[in-house]
Amino acid sequence: MTPCNIANMAALAGLSAIAVSDHQSALNCPAVAEACKRAGITAVPAMELCTREEVHVLCLFSTQEGALLCSDFVRSRLILPRSTARIKIRQTVMDAFDNEISDEKAYLGAAADIGIYDVCGLVDSFGGIAVPAHIDRPSYSLLANLAFFDPAMGFGTFEVSKDCDSIRLLTEHQELRGKRFLRNSDAHSLGDISDPVNFIEAADLSVRSILSALKQEPLF
Fold it and tell me: DSSP letter at 18?
């Protein structure tokens, strides 16, 4: 799952746009953007924020600068365990040709001291939109961890997993009716990158047009 491999596999699959959302960090976004440009597809700057409540939220940004600034802020708010000595996870930052340029030392598996009611305003301040991730899953999701959606949280778009039963979801959570939904592959390996079976109607393939469509168009 390196920038070049992801970009080229996505291009082979026929995708027009992707977002690579590392946990609690956007440091690989510049490399992904350059690799995707060579592959002829759009890369939306992104990261997956884990809130204080351990709810995963997909954060999509209009610019690389906004993504990186938000990433820096999230890093400063990480709730780190007392010891990470036994945690053996490679957290590699790469360039656009899959060369390793640094290793992130802070443990990115930790939650950030950012509450669910603060996420939308925070991400918006960096030029992005916040989308609760895989809300139909039994862990690390808004509905699994909190069991409800409060409109005061501010979310207008929600992500569901590719196998989500949408009828059951909306039957059990009436408060989500009328909201926008995004169905992603949420690939954690190259083989999980899906074919283009879900579509967004955007004015063009620019990042700004894609985000505008996510804010305005019903997708579910």
Answer: E
Model confidence pLDDT, tens digit, residues 56-73? 999 999 999 999 999 999
pLDDT (tens digit per residue) in 7-37:
999 999 999 999 999 999 999 999 999 999 9
Supply the CATH number for residue 35's domain: 3.20.20.140
Do 46 and 58 contact (CB within 8 A), yes or no? yes
What is the tens place of the pLDDT at every residue in 81-121?
766 556 678 899 999 999 999 998 888 999 999 999 999 99
Range(s) of the domain holding residue 187: 3-216
Structural domain total, the chain: 1
Angle between helices 3-13 and 29-39 (to 10 degrees): 40
Q: What CA–CA distance (Å, rounded) separates 197 from 220?
A: 13
| Interatomic CA distance for residues 25 and 32, integer angstroms | 13
**Ranges assigned E (strand) in 16-124:** 17-18, 42-43, 46-50, 56-61, 92-94, 100-103
Separation in Å, CA 53 to CA 33, 110, 120, 149: 30, 11, 15, 13
Beta carbons of 186 and 211 less than 8 angstroms apart? no
- Which stretch of DSSP H or E encloses residue 29? helix 29-39
